[in-house]
Design a protein that fits this description.
This protein is α+β, with helices and mostly antiparallel strands. It is 36% helix and 30% strand. It has three helices and nine strands; from the N terminus they run H-H-E-E-E-E-E-E-E-E-E-H. The protein has helices at residues 3-6, 9-49, 189-224, and strands at residues 52-61, 64-73, 81-91, 94-99, 117-119, 132-134, 139-145, 152-158, 174-184. 19% of the residues are buried.
Length: 225
């Protein structure tokens, strides 16, 4: 007797359709697992590396206008100060080109080192302040002058020709009072991670629904056969 008699066509077709549905469902489940792993890894990676804060800052004085952004660590020290690691912005139209390394003075203001600390406290800068260079070859060091009868913020400005030592500040240089302000920019980091996880969850739900549908189709075909 031929094989067709032993295994009727309808039964064979039912088996073939069921196998295809099951294979497709398993493939989708594997792809979903990979996607979820990728999303979870990406989100975890972002949480692990989200260790920096962005700030807006600005100050002004007599003939002075400066503003820009800071990048700092995300954990303040015991006094509430964050360490600045990056700076962008302008001063009087000159582009800020770099942050003065902490523990060194801006050229022309030796030996007064900057510490590059910023805080949300009422006094936002220390007595050392931060320093930066500009595209015109100038240097600036805003700081909090607690030694004055009325404490306030000052900016030491050093311009070429630069002679080392604060005692050698010339007519092109200055030390003037300023108004200073800085605030943390809100970054919706958690929102981005949450969105990614939601998308991953929705993808998994969709695959599970398709898997259930495939099982339903298989059962229906079995009943027909």
């Amino acid at each position: 007797m031929g094989s067709d008699a032993q295994f009727p066509y309808n039964t064979w077709e039912t088996f073939r359709i069921s196998a295809i549905a099951l294979t497709t469902s398993m493939k989708n489940l594997v792809l979903s697992a990979i996607a979820l792993t990728t999303v979870s890894g990406f989100a975890f990676g972002k949480m692990q590396t989200a260790s920096a804060l962005n700030w807006n800052w600005n100050y002004s004085g007599d003939g002075i206008l400066a503003n820009g952004t800071f990048t700092t660590n995300d954990t303040p020290n015991d006094l509430g100060f964050y360490l600045i690691s990056g700076i962008t912005g302008t001063r009087n139209g000159e582009t800020i080109t770099g942050l003065q390394p902490a523990g060194t003075p801006i050229p022309g203001n030796e030996p007064f080192n900057v510490d590059n600390l910023i805080s949300l406290n009422t006094q936002q800068l220390t007595g050392d302040g931060f320093g930066y260079s500009t595209s015109a070859g100038n240097y600036s060091n805003p700081f909090f002058a607690s030694f004055l009868p009325t404490p306030t913020y000052l900016e030491v400005f050093s311009a070429p020709p630069i002679i080392p030592g604060f005692e050698n500040l010339g007519l092109e240089d200055s030390q003037l009072p300023i108004s200073f302000s800085a605030s943390i920019i809100t970054i919706p980091e958690s929102t981005s991670i949450f969105s990614l996880l939601v998308l991953g969850t929705l993808g998994a739900s969709s695959v599970l629904k398709r898997h259930k549908l495939s099982k339903f189709t298989q059962e229906k075909l079995e009943k027909v056969s």
